[in-house]
User: What shape does this take?
Amino acid sequence: MPSAKKTLLINALLVTTLIFSACSSSKTTSSSNSENASEQRNNQPSIAELEEIYWARIDSSKMNFTEADVKFMTGMIGHHAQALIMSGLAPENGASPQVQTLAARIINAQKDEIASMQTWLRDRDQPVPEVHIDGLNLMIHGTGMDHSNHMNMAGMLSQEQLVELSEAKGKEFDRLFLTYMIQHHQGAVTMVKTLISTDGAAQDEQAFRLSTDINVDQITEIERMKLMLSKIESESKD
Amino acid sequence: MKLNKLTKTGVFKSVWIFLFSAALMTYACSSTEPMMDVDYTSPTVNSLSNVDSPTPDPRVGLGAGLFDAEEAIWNLNKLSSTPPPEAFLGVTNSDLAFKGKYAIQGNYNGVLVWDISDPANPVLVKDYLCPASQSDVSVYGDLMFVSGEGLSGRLDCGTEGVQQAVSDERLRGIRIFDISNIEEPEYVANVQTCRGSHTHSVLKDPNDDENVYVYVSGSASVRPEEELPGCSDMSPDDDPNSALFRIEVIKVPLSNPEMSKIVSSPRIFEDLKAPPTHGMSPADAIEIEKARKAGAFIIEFNGQETVVPDRFVAQLMTNALGVEGEPTAADSAALREQLPAIVARMFGGGDGDGEEDDRGGPTQCHDITLYPEIGLAGGACEGYGLLLDISDPANPTRIDAVADSNFSYWHSATFSNDGKKVLFTDEWGGGGQPKCREADPMEWGANAIFTIENGKMKFQEYYKLPAPQTSQENCVAHNGSLIPVPGREIMVQSWYQGGISVFDWTDPNNPVEIAFQDYGPIAADRMANGGSWSVYWYNGAIVSSEIARGLDIFELEATPYITQNEIDAANTVKLDYLNAQGQPKFVWPKTFALSKAYVDQLERNKELDNAAVKMARQSLANAEAANPKVRKKILTELADKMDGMASDNEKVKMLAESVRGLASNQ
Assistant: This one.
């Protein structure tokens, strides 16, 4: 992991390059990407050179991160993994069609986000947590972090709560699933808030985007789940 | 077809032909030169119910590459593909706005201004370095507005980011530039907002020429109060000034933009209790009817009819009726009768309109599409699609809201030109995830089409990119615009690395793809962020902002599903500027292209019979070749005939009106 100082140095270098390039490239003409056109512009980089610059810049932009970003990604992978366990129970436990749809969406969305976060860490040569799910048991390998670190994250269900959920059926499952998933999602929102209130964090475009997308998606789902839950609760009062 | 009834007899046709010939002879006699029928060519037109999309779909299995990816293209011509300038390379290209001959492309590093007067050779006239995500851009008059949301945007446009969590150097909100000389934008003002600006929409009040209004949508977390006083992310119940559950409206004095400020924060989500699902789609209803006829058990669940799965029926037979083994017809009848009561016991009865313990509804909007000519806006706001009345620009009010259990995240809206339909997109996964894989449901991350009836939105159908993409390609419904083909709703839309899809949604129940373009993934072995962020029609050009690859410009190719006449008619619409979130009302000048486009559509949809189509085409061709005086006569005659044939057919009336307008222009 680069120290804060190193990150700044890399940033400064990148900035210098950007400013230099900006000056040298302002007010230039551009043209189609055909070979001929690019050959005609002698002072312009060729398509092959542009491609090289593109990948070099993508690579260097990956170095603009802090420990808080890494901690967020690593933690959120474990956090998402528990949502997979919870959602995986829905079909077996007789959830209503609405809750099953919701659970299927959570699985689809959070699996993809786990993959994105793993890629983000791998691209930055950070330890990549691998998720193993065995029934209600979640195992995270590859980070050297112990199990209790995951369970301490905001919104995580205790093992007792997971067991309680796994034993609920039908309408009671729906109620409990929504209640616990709201709690779980609120934890993720808290984690995003912690990230962005940390100095130097989420300056990286991908980290900002991933955390913002998680924030927005989960807030949206929380509102949807609150509506579903209040409906269930008002029906059971009848 | 009503018209076929009128014209179906041969006698009737002969009468028309006779009258027509007589009319021509009259012209010939009154003119000094003999009048002959001129030659004309008829385009081939085919029904949209039978589009010959290429099979297998060439978008599947395209080879990867940044500037050398394989490409599939159908019914579009690519005019140019221009990489970004070096300083902006490898940094996300975002949304587009247009002014005069310029396309303005947002980029997370700033703004690029392209002269697109020759779409085959766009010329970069300014690259303005001023980093901020997402750099969504809009224009009005001499002003340009740019959104800043990310944490690294700086007031001074510096590229070093902002390392401190609380800093007076950070810009999150709207930057305002003077672009009276668009090749040298001048940064004149900022308006800081609590959540930054993910996107924004510029509203010109038809009754106010001195100000414009900018509606700001922010989706990121609320800034700390120490950074921007007054920002609070508490629930509005605890803090009435909460930045949640509201949008921001900035009033911009056009002659004094540095005086721009937030004038209101309408809480357009207040007391929102929309149903968690949309109504049944027509296709669903047909399925239910089919199932009912086949003897399936149907229950009403959450106000919507649902087929009871067989497994559940078997359980009910055993548990509720105590039936063991194969149920008899009597058992089935008993179950049918008791089903509503059983369902009510199991799931609770009533329509569930109980009191809310928690504040429901969205906390913000992603995008608001303003359509001032009809006084409406479409708000895509987290879990809801909203219809807003914007006749008072500073105080928009909600007139309807829909939710949809298939929709994750309402992203943006596009109205039909007549304002009777609206299409919402669902940016499931935020645009960074691959949501177009084979196994991803076609209702998720799609468009939803609604009709607007008496201020209420009524769901009709979904449309999703039909070509499955790889898991290395971020793909979901994203930005697009209408193509102004008169008499039809045709939209061109970005699907990130899913490419560009052009589809017809004139029939809201049956959207049909008629053209596309797609590149292979940026990288074969990993997900690299790329694809078309937005694509818009602007004065005949279809301009796409490619996240990684730069600026692509296309034009439509004539096909039996969209003829050259229809394309020519679309290209008669000239816009002075375009902001995608401010929808312009298209008005078509009365041209031969317009009338011919309507004739093509009447033939395609078989709303006029062949003889009438032929007659109309011949008349238009003769008129076009004639001198103005004769032309006027021929056109007036044709308009009269079409009015006579129109009965209650709207399209024939539109043709008659366009021909009459053409006549009066002579």
Remarks:
- Chain B touches chain A through 89 residues (CB under 8 Å).
- Residues 97-267 of chain B form one domain.
- Chain B is about 20% helix and 30% strand.
